[in-house]
Structure formats: C-alpha cells, structure tokens
Write a structure and sequence with these properties.
Length: about 80
C-alpha cells in the first residue's frame, strides 16, 4: 500500500524514478522496489520522498482529531 502512495506522489510531480532517486541519494532500482513493494522502505525514506514531492505526513488521532507532523513532534519534549 505504501508503494502506491510513493508512486502517486512521484508521478503527481511529474518526476521520473531516476531523477527522484538521485535527489534522495538512492538507486533507481531501490526506488522501484519501494514503489512495487518488493523492498521494505524506512519511515525516514518515506518522509524524504514526501518532502521532495511537496507532501507532508500527518498523524491524526481518530478520536480527538488531533493532528501533528514529525516536525511538530520533534519540537515537543517527549
């Protein structure tokens, strides 16, 4: 499922795999494996792909509707 999201973000920005991979300092083959869910992708890499493609990852509490990002979480004392 995450592979489809990664591919969507990349294609929505009209980026080719090799261009995105170069900007992330990973191989085009690894990016392809992430998108096709043939390799497990780290959250760090997911976040980097999202940032390069102009997206931000949000965490939303279903009950309270509280929403935060990793950047906000890094600023809090936890």
């Amino acid at each position: 499922m995450i592979g489809k999201a990664l591919k969507y973000m990349r294609k929505n920005q009209n980026l080719k795999q090799d261009n995105l991979a170069k900007s992330l300092n990973i191989s085009q083959q690894n990016l392809s494996r992430y998108e096709n869910e043939q390799r497990i992708v780290s959250f760090d890499t997911i976040e980097k792909i999202a940032n390069v493609c102009g997206y931000e990852i949000y965490f939303i509490n279903k009950k309270t509707k509280e929403k935060f990002t990793i950047k906000e979480l890094n600023r809090k004392d936890i």
